Amino acid sequence: MAQSKACSPTCPSFKCTKDSAFNRRDAVWCRLTEEMCNVANCTYSMCIKRRLLPRGICGETVKRKTVEKDLDDDFLGESIKLKGKALRKLGDKEIF
């Protein structure tokens, strides 16, 4: 099972909204803070594909969890009592 990975500023989908990120030697630096670009703590970092999650996690590396629900259990609830205009339109006092 693959774990989620942190977003990096070298990703082609990464963008700095202030255009202050630039390549310096082998790392990406920020002109505003004068230190290495930290995606997790920067408010100006964004993903073009809109996959950037909180704490700088790349949404493309996260697997979704799906839960199947039985729809029959939801319909076997209490009946709904109607009043006024809805009662006149439907004609029944209770809907099951």
Name a few traits of the molecule:
96 residues, alpha+beta, three-stranded antiparallel beta sheet, two-stranded antiparallel sheet, 11% helix
Care to describe what's here?
By secondary structure, the chain is of the alpha+beta class. It has a domain at 14-61. 11% of the residues lie in helices and 25% in strands. The protein has 2 helices and 9 strands. The protein has helices at 71-75, 85-90; strands at residues 14-16, 21-24, 27-30, 35-36, 45-47, 52-53, 57-58, 80-81, 94-95. The strands form 4 sheets. Strands 2-3-4 form a 3-stranded antiparallel β-sheet, with no helix packed on it. A two-stranded antiparallel ribbon has the order 1-5. Strands 6-7 form a two-stranded antiparallel sheet. A hairpin with a 2-residue loop joins strand 2 and strand 3. The two termini are 44 Å apart. The mean pLDDT is 80.
Which helices and strands appear, and what pairs or packs with what?
Layout: E1 14-16, E2 21-24, E3 27-30, E4 35-36, E5 45-47, E6 52-53, E7 57-58, H1 71-75, E8 80-81, H2 85-90, E9 94-95
Antiparallel strand pairs: 1-5, 2-3, 3-4, 6-7, 8-9
Helical/strand content category: alpha+beta
Uncertain spans: none
* Overall geometric form: elongated
Q: State the major sheet.
A: 3 strands, antiparallel
- Could you state the order of secondary-structure elements as H and E? EEEEEEEHEHE
Strand content: 25-35%
Task: Please outline what is shown here.
Helix content is 11%, strand content 25%.
